[in-house]
Each structure stands twice: as structure tokens, then as C-alpha cells.
Specification:
Structural class: mainly alpha
Mean pLDDT: 87
Strand content: 5-15%
Number of helices: 18
Order of helices and strands: HHEEHHHEHHEEHHHHHHHHHHH
Length: 326
């Protein structure tokens, strides 16, 4: 027991799998008195010393075809039927089923019954993570893209969960066309369910992939994520996104977005305590919206202007300005 504890570092998974392997190898057997343990044979075994070694040992017996199936399952990161995997791998169903059953026999995968069919998944999370990290980035992107396309084309309904899965795989595939589109859809769905952190995560993933020439989509993502960050009290990060929005508006020559970025920067500055600068930004925004003949934008800027005056203690001027706004 002490020898096994030392070899496995006390890791429960390694300890359990090591015992299972030793029993399968006949080095630990049951007898009438209890257990018969062949200590000398155990000491000569090349047992895994960490989870990485364990995962590598599990995978080394797989064939190249089986290895490619395991890569698919690693990218999918969810249980899958042999029918679905055969479609993704573009292989015969019977051949895929045989490989999956072989991997079950090797204790790499487990088979579970789901609805009317069997589904396969990794027996241990560490094996999946090891293989996924060892897979070349280009191969990972290829796998994620194939999965995303199959989900998009093969799903009769677009449930919130399905949209999130498609978004995840397109983003992991670094698809600049479909990635941002589905990521933003997933973000808006998350907002409908009050999952703000999830929405922010999807907006950020989408923003990372928006093409340089798609200013409208970038503005949409920047405005949404900055507003959510400000709502969560993360004014520093919100300010950075509004500054990026301001720079983009100036480069693209879009005065309305420039005015919006200035107004929202004013809001961030006032709420973070930099009232003097916030006041200056609010005044600038009000003037810009007035020039654009954008009444709602001007009113919102005047309200911020009044709020800044109130924070500075000038209640009379703040009251007059608020009356003017309304």
C-alpha cells in the first residue's frame, strides 16, 4: 500500500487505475483468505508517475484511425454516438463502431446508453485534456470547424444550448465569418437568461474574431461588452473598450459612434470618481449630438453633465441643466 501510495502520489484516479491494471495483469488476485499481492512483480512494473504519463500510457495502444477518432471526441468534448462520429470522420459506421468498442476494451472510452443509442466518451478527463493539448493547433481548428458545420447544418432547431455549442466550435476554429455571428447570438441569449458573465465571455470571443473591415459588427460588440462591464462595476475594462470604440469611430469617420463613445466615457469617468474629466467629456458629447441633431443622444449627455455638476456640489446649475434636458 505504501509503495502504491508513493508511486501515485496519492492521486485517487491514478491509484484506482493502477490497482485495476495490476488486477488485470494478475499481480493482485483474490484468494480465500483475502488478496494475494505479488510485490516483486509490482516493483518491476513501469507504473505512471503522473496524470500525463497515465494518459500517454492509455493512448499508446490506439491505432492511427482510433487516434483520429479520439481527437474528434476530444474536440467535441461531449458524449457522441458512433453514427455521429462516423459522419464527422467520413468513415463507414461499422468501422467506427469497431474502433470505438476497441477503445472501450482498452479502457480509454466508456459506453453509455442514451435514449435509443449508445454514446461514447472519455473514461477520464485527464486523457481527453492530454490528447487535446497534444493535437496540433491546425488540426484542432479543422476538427472544431467540422463539428460547428455539422451542428449548424444538421440541427432542425436552434435551441439556446445548440447556439452556444455552435458558437464555441466556430470560435475555437477561428472562423472570422461565422464565429462572431454565432458568438454574439449566444451572448444575447445569455443576457435573456440573466447570465451576464457568460454574455461578456461570448462577446469577447466574438470580438477577437471580427474582421478588420467589418466596423459595424465591431461597434456592436464593443458597445455591448463595455456596457455590461460597466454594469458589473468593472469601470477600468469598460473604459478601455470605449476608448477603442472612440479610436475606431475616428478612423472609420463615423461621428455618431464617436459621440456615443465620448458620452459613455464620460459616464465611466464620473462613476469612477474622475468628475472633472467626466464633465468635460459630457459637455463634448452634448455638443456633438446637438450638431448631429440627435435629440436622445444630446439629452442623455445633458443628464450626465448635470450629474457631474451635482457630484461637484453645484446643485443649482445641475437642476437648471436637468430641467433643460427634460
Amino acid at each position: 500500500t505504501e509503495h502504491l501510495q508513493k508511486l501515485t502520489g496519492g492521486n485517487p484516479l491514478l491509484l484506482a487505475e493502477t490497482l485495476f491494471g495490476l488486477i488485470s495483469a494478475g499481480l493482485i488476485t483474490r484468494n480465500l483468505a483475502g488478496w494475494d499481492i505479488r510485490l516483486e512483480g509490482i516493483r518491476l512494473c513501469n507504473l505512471p508517475k503522473n496524470l500525463s504519463d497515465f494518459a500517454q500510457a492509455q493512448l499508446c495502444a490506439s491505432t492511427p484511425k482510433q487516434h483520429r477518432l479520439l481527437e474528434l471526441l476530444a474536440a467535441l468534448d461531449a458524449p457522441a454516438s458512433h453514427f455521429y462520429l462516423a459522419t464527422l470522420a467520413q468513415r463507414e459506421v461499422s468501422s467506427v463502431l469497431a474502433d470505438l468498442e476497441a477503445l472501450v476494451a482498452l479502457t480509454v472510452l466508456i459506453r453509455q446508453q442514451s435514449s435509443q443509442e449508445s454514446v461514447y466518451s472519455y473514461r477520464h478527463r485527464c486523457t481527453r485534456e492530454y490528447l487535446y493539448n497534444e493535437t496540433a493547433p491546425s488540426r484542432r481548428r479543422e476538427l472544431h470547424h467540422a463539428i460547428a458545420q455539422s451542428l449548424e447544418q444538421g440541427s432542425p432547431t436552434t435551441s439556446p444550448q445548440m447556439i452556444e455549442q455552435i458558437a464555441h466550435h466556430y470560435c475555437e476554429a477561428v472562423d472570422q465569418q461565422s464565429g462572431p455571428r454565432f458568438a454574439f447570438r449566444a451572448a444575447y441569449i445569455a443576457l435573456e437568461h440573466a447570465a451576464t458573465d457568460r454574455a461578456i465571455s461570448f462577446f469577447l470571443k466574438g470580438l477577437d474574431l471580427v474582421p478588420r473591415n467589418d466596423a459595424a459588427l465591431r461597434f456592436e460588440g464593443l458597445e455591448a461588452v463595455a456596457a455590461l462591464l460597466l454594469m458589473r462595476g468593472d469601470s477600468d475594462r469598460a473604459a478601455k473598450f470605449y476608448q477603442e470604440m472612440l479610436l475606431l469611430a475616428r478612423m472609420a469617420g463615423i461621428p455618431s459612434k464617436e459621440a456615443l463613445a465620448i458620452r459613455e466615457t464620460s459616464r465611466v469617468l464620473i462613476e469612477s470618481g474622475d468628475v472633472t474629466r467626466g464633465l468635460a467629456y459630457a459637455q463634448d458629447a452634448a455638443a456633438r449630438f446637438r450638431e448631429l441633431e440627435d435629440a436622445p443622444g444630446e439629452i442623455a449627455s445633458l443628464v450626465l453633465w448635470a450629474f457631474a455638476l451635482l457630484r461637484k456640489g453645484d446643485t443649482m446649475a445641475a437642476d437648471l441643466l436637468a430641467r433643460e434636458a427634460f
